[in-house]
Amino acid sequence: MTVDAQQHVLPDTPQAYGEHARTWLADNLTDELRLDRALGTPAPLADLIAFEAAQHRAGLTGITWPTEYGGHGRSLLEHLAANREIGRAPMPEAVNSIGKELAGPIIMAVGDERQKSEWLPAILTMDDIWCQGFSEPGSGSDLASLRTRAERTADGWRVNGQKIWTSGASKSRRCLLLAHTGSPEDRHKGLLLLAVPMQTPGIEVRDIQSIDGERSFAEVFFSDVLVDDADVLGAPDEGWAAATRVLTIERATNRMYRAWRFESEIDHLVAACRTDPRALARLQEHARPLAQLRVEAELLKAHVEQLVEVLHGGEEIGPRGSFPKLYWSEAHQRFAQLAWDVVSVLPPGAGQPLQDLRARMQRVYLASRAETIYAGTTEIQLDIIAKQILKLKRRA
């Protein structure tokens, strides 16, 4: 695979930035990388990493990060413009999404100057891939109930515990780890954030095979793992505030491309079905719910754009970050079910457009089963909205 090795001179306006992103993706998104192709063998990890590094050189990642830390120093408006095009393109999900969307913002918020200077550029250049050690067996989205412990020692911190659903753990260089320094009953107190090198003795990674046959996440065991003070992010009691603040950003803006990816998947379904009268007849049986889903995609796009305007104007969005995550995951899951109902009964010997469609929608359907769980379950989002926005009281 050949990718663009050039460092680009980037446009000065959001509109031009979007046009640049569209042109670059059209020139560099090969058939091996496209999600709308029915290829038997997926692109190898090395090609995905090279493509992601090239995206950064082209200005498609690290858009709002400061230039002194390897970013491009632009505003959320340019970020939005590029993400519209990223969503419209059938491109693979990021290998280093945890690094860019969670670890990076946390490092910028609470990290010291050495950590920012060393770790942030390496995330963007793909020299360091990160995973996230938040969820645990029995805890899930309730981060305050986690039981992984970090105990102070003369050499730093000794960590013992277990994490689960750790995306990309087997290929990561560091883990953004949340651990208790006190007892689990302390809930939000004494939570510590650590940037743990994954090669540290005492760490065991066990890959988990998901329903689609992939091994994209894992359970990770920490047995007397010694972590240096230099790898602590912020103060011991800052872990809860930093984690929840960044999760709010993640739910609202980091993956804003999903609204346009949702739209492009609907368009792909319709366009491919139009190539075969039998497939089109099957699709027309779902005309009303499909139309409703298209409306929901438009509403999601508008909501993301409104949040960007608010943030660009200097306001905090706080718990409103739960809205796009909740709305997208519920609506996209309904679309995935509808799309699979259509493509799962496509006629034998269907043409290449329908073969491509079936392969893509099968992946979409299987992946969608987890969308109402990761990055905060539907129940967690509803609880945040009820308590923090609607100010509802808990029923006795």
From TrEMBL:
Signal peptide: none annotated. Keywords: FAD, Flavoprotein, Oxidoreductase. Pfam families: Acyl-CoA_dh_1, Acyl-CoA_dh_M, Acyl-CoA_dh_N. It comes from the Bacteria. Residues 237-390 form the Acyl-CoA dehydrogenase/oxidase C-terminal domain. Residues 20-126 form the Acyl-CoA dehydrogenase/oxidase N-terminal domain. Residues 131-225 form the Acyl-CoA oxidase/dehydrogenase middle domain. InterPro entries: Acyl-CoA_Oxase/DH_mid-dom, Acyl-CoA_Oxase/DH_mid-dom_sf, AcylCo_DH-like_C, AcylCo_DH/oxidase_C, AcylCoA_DH/ox_N, AcylCoA_DH/ox_N_sf, AcylCoA_DH/oxidase_NM_dom_sf, Mycobact_Acyl-CoA_DH. Its cofactor is FAD. Belongs to the acyl-CoA dehydrogenase family. This is Acyl-CoA dehydrogenase family protein. It comes from Klenkia sesuvii.
